[in-house]
Each structure stands twice: as C-alpha cells, then as structure tokens.
Amino acid sequence: MAWPCPASSAVQPLSSSAPPCPSLAPSLSSLPKGTRSLSLNRRSPSPSPLPSLRPELTTSPSHSPHKLHLSPPSHPPPSPLSPHGKPPPPISCSLNLTSPFLVEKEKQSISSKANTEKQNPLLSSLLLSLLSSIKSPTMALRGDWMYENNGGTCVAIAGIDYCVVAADTRLSVGYNILTRDHSKICSLADKVVLASSGFQGDIRALHKNLAARHLLYQHQHNKQMSCPAMGQLLSNTLYYKRFFPYYAFNVLGGLDNEGKGCVFTYDAVGSYERVGYSTQGSGSSLIMPVLDNQLKSPSPLLLPARDAVTPLSETEAVDLVKDVFASATERDIYTGDKLEIVVINASGIKREYLELRKD
Amino acid sequence: MFRNQYDTDVTTWSPAGRLFQVEYAMEAVKQGSAAVGLRSKTHAVLGAVNKAASDLASHQRKLFRADQHVGVAIAGLTADGRVLSRFLRNECINHSFVYESPLPVSRLVVQLADKAQVCTQRSWKRPFGVGLLVAGLDETGAHLYYNCPSGNYFEYQAFAIGSRSQAAKTFLERRFQEYDTYSREDLIKDALFAIKETLQGEKLTAQLCTVAIVGEGEAFHIIDQQTIQEYIDAMELSTGGPDEEADAAAPPSAEAQEGGEGASSEPAPMDI
Questions:
Q1: Exposure pattern of A235-269 as b/e (b: 16+ CB <10 Å)?
Q2: Which residue of chain A is at minimal alpha-carbon distance from B71?
Q3: Which of A48, A151, A349, B22 has the fewest CB atoms within 10 Å, i.e. is most exposed?
Q4: Where would you find this protein in the cell (chain A) (predicted)?
C-alpha cells in the first residue's frame, strides 16, 4: 500500500548545500521493510538549516543512520523553516519580552512587573502567582477546577528484544515553565517502565500506587510483575477512578514474558491496547504521524492485529526517538528542555539524556 | 501447667491475676521449631530450623520479608505467622506510601503488639499462637525484637524461641556482650552455631536451616544455601573437629547442596 506523499522533486532546495527537511519519503512499499526512509534530519548535511535540531547528528546522504558526524553548527543560511536565523537564545535570558509565545496581556504585566519589582516585591510576587494561575477563560473563574495540565510528551517503541521509552523533562503550567528537570518516567519493575504526561499530581499518585501494588505482588508471588500483568493492573487502576479520573496519559513499555518488546498505550480512564509504538501527551499529535510513517506495519488490514514490534535495531530506534522529539520540540511549547530515554532489554534498564531546545 | 476452671475464655481472669489462654498461646510458641536472632550495631541476623512434619513433606517457611529493611522469623502456628507477616508487609507499604520513608522497626513492633493485644481482650477471638522475632534496620541502627502472643514485645541483643531454644539461649548468653561490634560474617556464624545448639546432636547442614540478614547497605534477604554451607564448613574446620567428622562432612555437604537447591528454590504456593 502506498503512503500518499508529494514527489520529492516537487520540493526545491533552498540552497545547494541545504536540502530542506522534512521531505516526505517515497512510498514505503517500494522499500524493504524496516528501512527508514524519512529523512527529517538525516539527509541534511552540515550546516543544517535548523541548527537547534541536534546539530551534532548530521549524516551523509548515504543511509548510515548510526554514524554520528559531529560537526559544530556554523552560521546557516536563512530559511523560512527556522524561527530565528541564529542559534537559540541562551537559557539565562528568562524575561524575553519579545518572545512570540507571550500573550499580549502577559507582556504588559511583565513589563510593569519589571518596573515595580524594585519598589514593591510583595506586589510583584502577587502578579506572578496571578500569571501562573491563568487558565482558559471558562475554567479559570471556577474555584473548583481540580486538574491542571503540566504538559510533556511520552513515546515508547517496542523492538524485537528491547523497548525504548522516552519522555521530555519539562514541567509547565499555562505559558510558564515550572521546571526543566522533572522526570515523567517511572521504573516500576525490572522489565516494566511507565511514562505518563498530564497532571503531575495525579501522575505521581498513580506511579506511587502502582509501585506499592507491585511491592505487594512481589511479596505474594515472589517474583516481579511482567509487563502484560502491569498493563492490566494499570488499566484497572485507571478505571477504578472512572468518575474522577487520573489526569494522566500513559505509555507503558517493557519486555513481555518471552523477552520481546511490548508497549501498551492508555487513555485517561484505562482503555488500553498492546501496540508496537505509541505516544501520548501534548506533542503526541506531532509525533504520532511520524512514527506511523516509520514504524507502522505495511499490512494493518490483517486481522487479528498482530503485534507490530519494529524490526529496527536498538540504536536505530533510539535515534528515531531523538529525532521525533527534536521535531516536536520545535512546534510544541510544552515539550523541550531535556529528553530522558530509557531502554529496557535483557541486560536491564539503561538511561540516557539528550538536551532539547529550551524555548 | 494444669487445666483449671479459669482457662476456658481469654476474657476470664484467674484469681492470681493470670490469663491462662494467653499463657497457653505462649506454650504453642514453644512447640514450634526453633528460631534465633542476633544483632550488632549495623546488622541483624535471623535463623530458623527447617523442620518438616514428615519425610514426605517439605518444611514450612519460617522467615518472611516484611520490607527492604525488616524481616521476621516465626515460631508456633505457621498459619498465624503468615497472616501476621502479611499484616506487617501491608503496614510497611502503607507507611512508605504516605511518608516516603521506611517504617522504623520500633513502630512496626508496636503496631504488631497492638494487633496481638486485641485478640487477648475479645471473647470471640483467640490469641495468635505464634511468636515473632522481628529484625530490622532503621535510622537508629539494627534492632531485634520479640513479639509475644500476649501483646508484649521486648528488644533483644540476641534471642531464641521455639522448641529446644534454651540450649541456644545459653550459648547466646555467653556471647552476646560482644555482638555490638561483631562483623557481618561473625554474626552469621554465631547464628548458625546457635541453631546447631538447638539440634542437639543432629548434624547441621545448609538444608536443615535458613538464615536471613539485614544490615547497612544490605536489604533483608535470605542467604542462599551454598553460602550457608560454606559458613558451616568453615565453622567445622575452625572448631577443629576430629578427622573422621571432617571427612564425613565433605560428601554429605555436597549432597545437601544439590538437594537443598532443588527443594528450597521457591516456597510452596500454599505457604504464603
């Protein structure tokens, strides 16, 4: 089956040295299964027109996605794709009054805040707390809205004998960042890892709940929970609160009893499904189509649905995850800062971090 | 003790101010196979004798983990002991869920003692027929407690309960003064020695006993059979047994290892 896509030749390169990215891949069916043909970043040699999209990872046009050509980002040609013509601003510049993400109202408050700060520290802190509590107009006026979306994105990919679970580490509320360094990933068992995005209070409670239930399980059965068992437990735990749900969008990853990678994806009330890959959270709508393009099995019409673990190798899957997060960070304001990647395989759980754009 | 007219109910006092049913429950503890416990400043060791009801049966589990930092050894009615271990596990999980920190051992034994006391003051209940040696590590160091069916608890440097425990207690009484500074290995050796005392002549093998340890940097866990056998062999060599004993020790210990690993890899499901 052919994926609808524009012909590659229709997209003109902006300069001879910088073919644009992304350009959609040719039809998947024409390629051997498992070949990654989408070249979000892959086909762009240095200097990349999007310098912040992991400039250290630029490969030659030949298909060798594993090799890292470490090249510093030199001054790139201007391109409509990049928001600024320069590398991202340093992190220390926090009160960026010209940032396009600032709402008009907040811009004024911040400038007034900068003025009044010296005179009245109490007033400025009140303003700050007001700002952080701004939600959508309908809900903000209620005194009883019990949820809050702290943003973030989670991804999981199942492989033949490994599973990759990744999530960004930004915690935000409204248009503010609460912290750049908050883990959304919880290691529940030696072969089970849970990543959740949504309301951080509920996520933490949910993770604690599951960890305690796992401890009980270990006491009773003298062994760790398998991933499918934890999958069912999570579903039941979520549905238990069907009428006051956990505001948590979960992706569970791990190895099943045979050692194959398995990923379960959930909605907020416990509906779940075993899949080959999934993403949840604020950036999921940006990432899911890319994963579908890369990982979806060529015959989804085959029923019953077979488990679609990707034939990609572990390093390829991790690279794919890094790529999709780098892209999602570009457009989703709630995704960024740092990416935490957890890989589960037969030898255990391994953690890796990658810096993302901080704006 | 003899039967009398005040021992039918746990809610009946005797004229001498005794609750006979509670005391009978303590007798039940003495019927169970022996369990020993000892501690230093940083480690606590529990040991138990693996007595099977018959040659056809497997031995009952006497050592239970309550949490990473606490474990118990039971003597008496194993069923009561299992139920109480489940209670201990729940209490530990609840505490660490609410307070994000391990439950201090002293609080755990108080909760256990209070649960036991309830059964001494209800006419429709009976006291638990099991004594528990609770060994754990918390911020104040390693601890060993003994919980009675009566609802009392005592802290010990070293103790033994169950049948023929007096021999072990005598041995421990001679040695306990130095336990605070004992190393981990010496503690295990002394625990094995104490267990040996309760066997009274029977040969000590790794198959016959179970030893668990908890300490600084070491979660509560049962020590595997092979390591125990090595300790036993080292003990026998150091005590300088006669040559025939050393020779006889080699083949039975090898057999014990193979048999032991098959039999005690997992507890039987109905043991939990």
A1: bebbeebeeebbbbbbbbbbbbeeebbbbbbbebe
A2: A219
A3: A349
A4: Nucleus
